[in-house]
Write a structure and sequence with these properties.
GO molecular function, one term: ATP hydrolysis activity
Helix content: 25-40%
Distance between the termini: 44 Å
Family: Belongs to the ABC transporter superfamily. Drug exporter-1 (DrugE1) (TC 3.A.1.105) family.
Order of helices and strands: EEEHEEHEHHHEHEHEEHEHEEHEHH
Bound molecules: adenosine-5'-triphosphate
Main location: membrane
Keywords: Antibiotic resistance, ATP-binding, Cell membrane, Membrane, Nucleotide-binding, Translocase, Transport
Oligomer: single chain
CATH superfamily of the largest domain: P-loop containing nucleotide triphosphate hydrolases
Largest sheet: 6 strands, mixed
Subcellular location: Cell membrane
Length: 335
Amino acid sequence: MTTTPHDPHDLAIAATGLRKSFGDQTVLDGIDLHVPAGTIFSLLGPNGAGKTTAVGILSTLLSADGGTARIAGHDLATRAQAVRAAIGVTGQFSAVDGLITGEENMLLMADLHHLPRAEGRRVTAELLERFDLTEAAKKPASTYSGGMKRRLDIAMTLVGDPRIIFLDEPTTGLDPRSRHTMWQIIRELVSGGTTVFLTTQYLEEADQLADRIAVLHGGRIVAEGTAEELKRLVPGGHVRLRFSDPAAYERAATALRETQRHDDALTLQIPSDGSQRELRAVLDWLDAAGVEADELSVHTPDLDDVFFALTGNHPVTAQATVPAPATTPAEETAR
Ligand SMILES: Nc1ncnc2c1ncn2[C@@H]1O[C@H](COP(=O)(O)OP(=O)(O)OP(=O)(O)O)[C@@H](O)[C@H]1O
């Protein structure tokens, strides 16, 4: 049997039409989320977009006003207990108690999960070691740095061996080194088969980690796709051709349309979404003109461009799909 990304049996998270308002403020205005098991999904949005609200609903901490969701195959509305057993949540609702040590926090978690004492100690020692907290284990958690607290928080979540982890802005406020450590931890979680639902306001983080990204804005998912697909949604992508032979440069500049010339550097810039089809069109044009470039490079806009284009004053409603085919030389001559 072939499976599609939306095969419900393959999805760790499948939500349809989720709605939530606080008073007369609509925070989620009908959002759909589909997260295949064993992948990292990032919900990206500016402050106040509703990311924490979405995590709250999917992790049973908040009730939705409308919509349905299945988490690890369990219906959120009717099987909340089973959902809770399958997930872990860390982030803005940190469970770390600063008054007790890191180790005591972990043992408390093991008790909550009804692990036998010896098993609780074993799991605690193993996770503290894995998250580089063994040395600090006997110190009160209030003395930990921001990065250490986040690591402890994730370690505590893993005591219950969840299949799905919700990480709500896991690196907000961390320095670059701690942020990279956290990224490594997240990658390792996924390589072990865990599904990660990550919220972030950092585009770079989504770009680095996520298999798929959804941009939340104005209560709706305004775009969804891989980082590369999202980057293709905004203008600014181009193909750059560099020549060393001025005659070849001139021939190419004449043969290709819509090019921007940089005579000093002998480079031509052609607007392009970077898709295979558009690249082939450029190459066909060059072949037809009998010119060869010394170097061809594709430049796609970064996620910052996408984010501002999608969450600016003119929201774009789009599903990331490869844009309309470019005109090929054959089609052009046929006109
Ligand atoms: N319990 C609540 N009561 C009233 N309003 C709420 C409540 N929880 C959230 N909100 C409002 O809902 C909106 C979305 O909040 P939410 O925390 O989900 O956003 P967010 O995307 O996580 O933002 P941030 O990045 O700042 O954490 C905000 O305007 C917030 O003030």
